[in-house]
Specification:
Number of strands: 3
Number of domains: 1
Shape: globular
Radius of gyration: 11 Å
Helix content: 25-40%
Structural class: alpha+beta
Largest sheet: 3 strands, antiparallel
Length: 56
């Protein structure tokens, strides 16, 4: 099984067509696409999860 490609916040925002601050707000509110945190300042979004519908 191949590991999914991990996108930066900027890459994920561009892929979703939203501003990066929207992703910040969604993360803080517990909404939006699935993400992985690698320490306090590194967040990545698995590319395959960006294709799933976002729960509001």
């Amino acid at each position: 099984m191949a590991l999914p490609k991990l996108l930066t916040t900027e890459e994920a925002a561009a892929r979703l067509g939203v501003h990066i601050h929207t992703l910040y707000r969604w993360r803080k509110a517990g909404k939006g696409p699935e993400f992985v945190r690698f320490g306090p300042n590194v967040v990545r979004y698995p590319e395959d999860t960006l294709l799933k519908p976002v729960a509001a």
